[in-house]
Specification:
Alpha-Beta Plaits; 8-stranded parallel beta sheet; 12 helices; 969 residues
Length: 969
């Protein structure tokens, strides 16, 4: 609408009149006047609030326009026009510029093909992706060694074939394939299944090829079953031989007998859900072994090594000495966590007839239990029946004593049979167990050196041998995890007895994803509430240094960042030793990070002492302890109002996914919540590859250096009056190909809106080159923009800091980015959301092994949160200290601090920000350093302040000024 003093737009503007057009700029040189000006009639102007205005217009001579020669026109004065009664008609002669807004693209979901359509296959569109080769079978199969390739008759006798479809596989297509009588073994990318034909010959290749939408059918050759690491090897090797899912005991016996007939030896065997043989065989017989139809994969036995080379507040709040999880009662009570490591000094009683004894007096008080405070120390409730047997014997156990309900150790499994409790030189098992759940006197409250879940119990699996070897690790990781899943063998989850967290601070140095990772993935798929954490390894900071089983999909792989005591770096930097991803198929690893440098925990060489260690071996159990606290949050009914409600037992998962009150969370939900509570790190070694420079791409997020960042759980878990709300969905029903699930949220402005999708994916065939089987995608749509009536769509894992450190760590809207087809965790992070209704959509892009369950964790602003108090009185600063040294109370530990680093600490009488300004002269402070959380403004408000000043001029006097501001400013 025109403003006061406006004139009709089809009269040329006079020198004293400005005609503002609200949305259009129409330059005069391009206007064509079609009506002679002297005959123009002035229409009424629109009704406007200003008073009546008389506009005298002088006579104006208009020169000819460049494109329209016009005669000189004299315009008489306009009459007084009362503005409230004027109406301005549409502008007929000034066309508005056309603005074309491209449609916002959505995820490129495939159009469902007709169940009966048979389009002509196009070469080059799809591939078969195996570790040995990637090829389009319509173009040709790979050039394989003749000894590792089936002839036509041999292929028919083996009966193992690949069946590839033309599109993402719909449930009806899978059903039609199964209806032929074949056994569907597993998925192979792209859009293919490995199948076994019935031995009676009732299913032919012609029958399979005639199925609608089948693109190709071909043999699963012996070469597809062999690790490429073995192809150029000779001589005798120890091999892991994995049989196909569903392989019978008879097929395992046949395979074992064949190995023996070729002069080999069967060293171990594991049947059940993960059939596996450990054999010693001359590789000249490898083609014969690979030709056995029941064999899925053959690989060398990997070497497994330990990953060891002020944490509580770092992972709970990111604020010095602030531990909100402990403050709200989350100690891990009622939960059981498992540690598989070198041993645990928890018991000593020379009068007991059981041969498992440690030195009298050396059982650490963080783990031991006594009868009425006496000297007869209690053993674990459950132990193995036959410690020391030749068979690893990972299943049987019995109560050797009366039920004691041990304070800390519910079960102890000696998988080596050597009777040691922590016989290795490092005390590695005691240390990592302590980070999870140590609880030294006074029992029942957190103290220096206690674990994150100090109230939880431990189920310990002793896999250590002398000199910190890991000879007790069983053939199958599936069996090892299964041992502690149902300790009391009652077939149901029993709180306080059955473990639902499994911590592993060991791994292979090989960047592969094969049998250990596959066993882990399969176990979690089949037992969706088991959380498995694995240290990333200490091979960093170069790309691709993460090892198996951290390379699995359904675990939480943990990298190591510096903790609150490392003055030379601080908790915003990864350690230089922490291994970097990606996995061999390009997936992001590690998943999260936790402190891994100079961590304090029980010392196995004393009965009360503490010691420091570093390595991702130390970061992993810290995160396992945090995962135990997250389980307690849901099991004890803290969700959704942040207050414990233990009226209902945490006895099973809610099948509806509508969680209210106590429920048993899935591993996917725990992973989603922890990822939601992870903060981007912006310091050193945080990028994909820091082998050449610790600072290159600092702050890249997410990355293969830091994953999704350092866990700060208070950013995700809700407690009363928090500024952010938590909403979760633990969907057990799942999605199939082309299914969608939609959720809407009314989101206020002022706090970030963060959405995390996580799911435990179906386990991949060992020979697959890409490990993701079921591909779910996350899509988030905004409400209309308040200025432009446009909505924006955001895809999971599409951040402005994804390729470099520059940026804010927030999601970019489409058309930037593509859906993530590699990872089973996806994040959308909106730092400053538009207030209104936001829509979250989970899409089943390609789900060949569906339906695929999933979990969502969503955090956003709490409109009901009370505002911070504003008393108008600035905070009082006291106890200022400048420290070149670091002294740990109780345990004296002085860290070297370089000449360019200083630590400044102080206190305030109320929560406030922490800033240090410094410069070369008093009163001149051009440099500013802040100790603050980067996610939310409230994270800066603390009463105990510590700022690490780095990069100071060497051998130069500098002056500091401290600044603390409370919430009211």
């Amino acid at each position: 609408m025109a403003g006061p003093g406006a004139v009709p737009t089809d009269i040329l503007p006079l020198p004293t009149v400005t005609v503002p057009l609200p949305t259009v700029t129409a330059p005069l040189p391009t206007v064509t006047v079609t009506v002679p000006l002297p005959t123009v009639t002035v229409p009424p102007l629109p009704t406007l609030p200003p008073p009546t205005v008389t506009v005298p217009l002088p006579t104006v001579t208009v020169p000819p326009l460049p494109t329209v020669p016009l005669p000189t026109v004299t315009v008489p004065p306009l009459p007084t026009v009362p503005l409230p009664t004027v109406t301005v008609p549409p502008l007929p002669t000034v066309p508005l510029p056309t603005v074309t807004v491209p449609p916002l693209p959505t995820l490129p979901l495939p159009t469902p093909p007709s169940p009966t359509a048979t389009p002509t296959p196009v070469p080059g569109e799809l591939f078969i992706r195996l570790k040995i080769a990637t090829f389009d079978p319509l173009v040709g199969e790979p050039d394989l060694p003749a000894s590792l390739r089936y002839a036509e008759e041999a292929a028919a006798a083996a009966g193992t074939y690949l069946v590839q479809f033309r599109n993402p596989i719909l449930p009806a297509w899978r059903a039609a394939l199964a209806a032929t009588g074949v056994q569907i073994v597993n998925y192979v990318p792209d859009h293919a299944y490995l199948v076994r034909l019935p031995a009676d010959g009732s299913v032919t290749l012609a029958i399979l090829s005639a199925l609608p939408n089948v693109r190709w059918v071909g043999p699963f050759h012996p070469a597809y079953r062999v690790s490429p690491m073995l192809l150029d090897q000779q001589g005798s090797r120890d091999l892991r031989v994995k049989l196909l899912p569903g392989a019978t005991r008879t097929e395992m016996d046949i395979t074992a007998a064949a190995v023996t007939s070729w002069g080999g030896r069967v060293l171990e065997r594991s049947s059940g859900n993960f059939p596996l043989l450990i054999v010693r065989l001359n590789l000249a017989e490898l083609p014969n072994l690979a030709a056995i139809p029941a064999v899925e994969w053959i690989e060398p036995v990997p070497e497994r090594v330990l990953h060891n080379t002020n944490a509580a507040w770092t992972v709970q709040s990111g604020q010095l000495d602030h531990t909100p999880l402990w403050d709200n009662g989350l100690s891990g009570a009622g939960q059981v966590a498992t540690v598989a490591d070198t041993g645990l000094d928890y018991w000593a009683d020379p009068t007991d007839p059981d041969p498992w004894t440690s030195n009298l007096g050396l059982a650490h008080w963080a783990y031991r239990d006594t009868i009425d405070g006496g000297v007869t120390w209690l053993k674990a409730d459950y132990e193995m029946t036959t410690p020391g047997s030749g068979n690893v014997n990972v299943r049987p156990f019995q109560r050797n004593h009366a039920s004691t309900d041990h304070r800390k150790v519910v079960a102890y499994f000696d998988l080596t049979g050597d009777g040691h409790y922590d016989g290795g030189p490092s005390g590695h098992g005691d240390h990592v167990s302590g980070s999870v759940a140590a609880d030294a006197p006074p029992y029942g409250q957190p103290d220096l050196g206690d674990g994150m879940a100090y109230g939880a119990r431990l189920a310990f699996q002793d896999v250590g041998t002398d000199e910190d070897g890991l000879g007790g690790l069983p053939a199958s990781m599936y069996d090892m995890i299964n041992q502690v899943y149902d300790i009391d063998e009652d077939g149901a989850y029993t709180a306080h007895t059955d473990a639902r967290v499994h911590s592993n601070s060991w791994g292979s140095i090989l960047n592969v994803t094969i049998l250990d990772a596959q066993a882990l993935d399969q176990f979690v798929w089949e037992h969706p509430d088991m959380i498995v954490t694995v240290s990333a390894g200490n091979g960093g900071p170069g790309a691709g240094s993460v090892g198996e089983p951290a390379t699995a999909k359904n675990n939480i792989a943990v990298g190591g960042n510096y903790n609150g005591g490392q003055y030379y770096s601080g908790p915003d930097s990864m350690t230089d030793f922490s291994s970097h991803g990606p996995s061999s198929d390009g997936r992001r690893k590690p998943d999260l990070s936790a402190p891994g440098a100079i961590n304090l925990s029980p010392d196995s060489d004393t009965d009360k002492g503490l010691q420091t260690m570093q390595g991702t071996s130390m970061s992993n159990p810290l995160l396992a302890g945090v995962a135990t606290q997250v389980r307690q949050y849901f099991c004890d009914g803290y969700y959704p109002d942040g207050v414990a409600d233990r009226s209902a037992a945490c006895s099973g998962m809610d099948p509806t996914g509508e969680q209210l009150g106590a429920f048993n969370p899935t591993a996917a939900l725990v992973k989603a919540v922890m990822t939601n509570g992870a903060r981007r790190l912006t310091g050193q070694y945080t990028a994909d590859d820091n082998s050449a420079d610790p600072n290159v791409n600092a702050g890249q997020w997410p990355s293969n250096g830091q994953g999704w960042g350092r866990i700060v759980l208070d950013d995700a878990l809700y407690f009363p009056d928090d500024s952010r709300l938590l909403w979760v969905k633990d969907d057990a029903t799942g999605l199939n190909t082309l299914d969608t699930a939609t959720y809407t949220f009314t989101v206020p402005s002022g706090q970030p809106f963060k959405v995390v999708l996580a799911y435990s994916d179906y386990y991949a065939l060992a020979g697959n080159d890409f490990q993701l089987v079921d591909n779910l995608d996350l899509q988030v749509t905004s409400p209309p923009d308040p200025i432009l009536p446009l909505t924006y769509t955001y895809l999971g894992n599409n951040m402005d800091t994804q390729t470099a450190g520059a940026g804010n760590g927030e999601s970019l809207p489409v058309p930037v980015g593509v859906p993530d087809a590699l990872n089973n965790v996806e994040v959308v992070n909106i730092l400053n959301p538009t207030a209104g209704v936001w829509t979250i959509t989970v899409l089943g892009t390609n789900v060949p092994e569906g339906p695929q369950p999933y979990a969502l964790a969503v955090t956003y602003g709490n409109p009901a949160a009370p505002p911070p108090p504003a008393d108008g009185i600035p905070p009082v600063i006291s106890n200022v200290a400048f420290s070149p040294d670091f002294v740990y109370a109780g345990q004296t530990m002085v860290e070297f601090v370089s000449d360019d680093t200083a630590v400044i600490t102080w206190q305030t009488d109320e929560p406030a920000t922490s800033f240090v300004h410094w410069g070369p002269t008093p009163g001149t402070y051009p440099n500013t350093i802040s100790h603050a959380g980067t996610a939310f403004p409230s994270a800066d408000l603390v009463t105990n302040h510590r700022v690490i000043a780095t990069g100071l001029p060497v051998s130069t006097t500098v002056y500091f000024q401290l600044e603390s501001t409370d919430a009211s400013g």
